[in-house]
Amino acid sequence: MNDLPPKILVVDDEPIARTNLAHVFSRRGARVTVASGGREAVAELEKDEFDLVITDLIMEGVDGLAVLERAKTLWPDTEVVVVTGYPTVETAVTAMRRGAYDYLAKPYGIEEARLLAQKALEKRRLRQEVKLLRERLRDKPDPLTIIGHCPAIERLKRTVAQVAPTDSTVLLLGETGTGKELVARTLHLLSARRDERFLAVNCGAFNEELLENELFGHEPGAFTGAVRLKKGLFESAPGGTLFLDELGETSPAMQVKLLRALQERVIRRVGGAKDIPVDVRIVAATNKDLRREVEAGHFRQDLYYRLNVIVLTLPPLSEREGDVALLSRFFLAKMAKKLGRDSLTMSPEVMDILAAYPFPGNVRELENIIERAAVMAEGEGIDVRHLPPDLRGEPVRVARPCANEPVTLEENERRHVAWVLGHCGGSRTKTATVLGIDRASLWRKMKKFGLE
């Protein structure tokens, strides 16, 4: 877990009480911020997240319960202890119902306050650990799922095992669909950072402004609608790994910001004026030839050399002799589990077709083909008729309107969706698979076209 000292916000309109508490926690290594009232406390909460807030209950203007509510709205995992000179059951129950960890009755001893804060911080730490474990259980792949026995993959696995324990930046090169994110996750799982977060972002999916906000976060008021502080991905994975996919798609201006983050290990939020240190390992990936991009002036040479520490090249599936059968069996077992079937098998004819296919979409395309065939097959056996038409050697039929009945593109799409839905017997899962979209996209189209 992250070993940074806890951040505590102390809120009290009595200077002596405020100073004493701040002194106690600062001496024990905490990063303490003080606020002389509720309004100032809310302003601090809107700027940053705290592990613990200790707030007086009775204050002029914005009282302690308002501070509690604002803290829980902005930062649900922040623990809050309410201090009151009027300890009644009603006061305690009200505070606890609104999310307070506990309350502290005046006059209190310094040791009593310290122990209560320690318990509150321990509760937050345990909650964060549980959340992190759930994320890892949900997202973590088995490192052994780098499937393949061809020489290129065997060399890749050996190199991954060798470089993973280091903190060196890694650049993954390979065509789309070759498994670059899987390799990045495996590098993380085999490293000393395995207990911290792995975060991934597709740099090609955002324009420059959105990508900057996603990576570096923003300060309150940085732009219209930025009402609260947002931490970017660089800050959100302390001690972990950040995977920057499709890095070759970034703009020159973004490349400058990334270079600074890699060189100086600091970032600056959008609208911010101070540098924030970050501790995150960078694994980057691209399907472009970055050396040629540098020569063409599309990619910064200094960033290229900063990334070009350890380079791993993932081979296309068409060059991985014997791995199609191995991967097919893996995806069959995965789909059988997903569909609740005892097993799934493929006929020899299907295996022959797959072995001869060039797979321009690489491993991702193979997985999609297996998923489609598994969904289309009613039993446990997959044969040639369950493959896409182009793999069966049949021409792909495209729905077209009759020549004497011109229709809009939208109407043509509605007819095609309706036809596939009918062809699949009304099964939305099969229809989405055939159309190459997810169920949520299919649902939106059906609702749009009145096909529900």
Automatic annotation (TrEMBL):
Transmembrane segments: none
Annotated ranges, domain Response regulatory: 7-121
Annotated PROSITE patterns: RESPONSE_REGULATORY, SIGMA54_INTERACT_1, SIGMA54_INTERACT_3, SIGMA54_INTERACT_4
Domain Sigma-54 factor interaction, first and last residues per copy: 146-375
Keyword Transcription regulation: yes
CDD domains: AAA
Biological processes, Gene Ontology terms: phosphorelay signal transduction system; regulation of DNA-templated transcription
Keywords on record: ATP-binding, Nucleotide-binding, Transcription, Transcription regulation
Matching InterPro entries: AAA+_ATPase, AAA_lid_NorR, CheY-like_superfamily, Homeodomain-like_sf, HTH_Fis, P-loop_NTPase, Sig_transdc_resp-reg_receiver, Sigma_54_int
GO terms for MF: ATP binding; sequence-specific DNA binding
Keyword Transcription: yes
The protein's name in its UniProt record: Response regulator of zinc sigma-54-dependent two-component system
Source organism (scientific name): hydrocarbon metagenome
